[in-house]
Design a protein that fits this description.
The structure is a homodimer of 125-residue chains.
Chain A (H helix, E strand, L loop, with lengths): L12 H14 L12 H8 L3 H13 L3 E4 L3 E4 L5 H21 L4 H14 L5
Antiparallel strand pairs in A: 1-2
The structure holds a DNA duplex (30 and 30 nucleotides).
Chain lengths: 125, 125
DNA sequence: ATGCTGTTATAATATGAATATAACAATCCC
DNA sequence: GGGATTGTTATATTCATATTATAACAGCAT
C-alpha cells in the first residue's frame, strides 16, 4: 500500500500514518491477518525515524486495529468495541456537523457526501 | 451559554473552547451579531488564562466564525466559504468513516446517527 | 552465527500549549 | 476629564508532546 506523508501538514507524522493505515484497512488494502511492514523498514522507505512509526503502531494497537506478534510484527486484527466506537463517532460528528451547519452545509448534503465517500471507496464494508 | 471545559481531556483547552462556541453558534445559542464575553471575563469565569481564550477567539476569527470589533469585542459573523468547508468536511469524514467501517458500523448506522444529532440539536439550520 | 524482528531505555532537540506580567491605545461610563 | 474596561502586543517561563538519534536486549529465521 502506498503511504504518503505530508511534511508540511500541521498534523503529527504518527497520526498521518495511523490514519492512512486505518483507511487502508477500511478499503481492504490491508486485510485481517496481514502484516504491516516492520517499523525499521517503513521508517526507511518514508524517510522518518523508527520511533515515529513505532508510535503509530502502538496507537493502532491501543485502538484495537492491530496486534503485535513477536515474529510477524504488527498484524491487522480488529478488536470491535461497538459501544466505544459509536460513542467516539457521535462525539466527532457533533463537532463536524456544527461546523458544517455554520457554513451553510445542509443535512442532506452531508448524507450525500457520505454516500460519495462510500462509493469512492468501493472497498468499504 | 454554558461552556464546560474538561481539564482531564487530552484536547487542548483553546480547541475545546473553539468547538463549544461553534456548537453554540450551530444551535443558535449564539446568533449573528452577538458578542462573545471579553477574553478576560471568560477566562475568569472558566478559571484559565486570558491568552488561552484569546487564542480560541483568534482561531475562530481565522476560520471565519467571528469578527473582532474594537468596541464589541468578538462578534459572531460567519464568513461562508463553501468550497473550503466542503473540502474540509470531506477530509474529516474520510478518516471517520474509515474508522467506523473497521469497527463494523454500517453506512446506514452513520446516516441514522447524523439524523439523531440533527434532531437532538433542534436548532441546527 | 548472522541478521532480522519488536521492545525498551535514554537523551537531545524542537515545537506548541498554557500561564504570568506588563504595557499600549481605543472605547465606555460616570 | 478620569477611571475602568476593551482588544492587542510583547516577553518570559513552564510544561508536555513530537521527532530524532543511539544503543542495547531477547526472540526467531535461515
Amino acid at each position: 500500500m502506498i503511504i504518503e506523508i505530508d511534511f508540511n501538514s500541521d498534523e503529527a507524522l504518527y497520526l498521518q500514518l495511523r490514519n492512512q493505515i486505518i483507511m487502508g484497512i477500511a478499503t481492504a488494502q490491508f486485510q485481517e491477518g496481514d502484516s504491516l511492514p516492520s517499523v525499521r523498514q517503513l521508517a526507511d522507505s518514508i524517510g522518518i525515524n523508527m520511533h515515529t512509526v513505532n508510535k503509530a503502531y502502538t496507537v493502532l494497537k491501543q485502538e484495537g486495529y492491530v496486534k503485535v506478534d513477536r515474529r510477524k510484527g504488527a498484524v491487522i486484527a480488529i478488536d470491535v468495541d461497538r459501544m466505544q466506537a459509536l460513542a467516539e463517532l457521535k462525539r466527532e460528528l457533533q463537532v463536524i456537523l456544527a461546523k458544517s451547519s455554520c457554513k451553510n452545509i445542509s443535512c442532506e448534503e452531508v448524507h450525500q457526501l457520505i454516500n460519495e465517500i462510500y462509493e469512492d471507496y468501493g472497498g468499504l464494508k
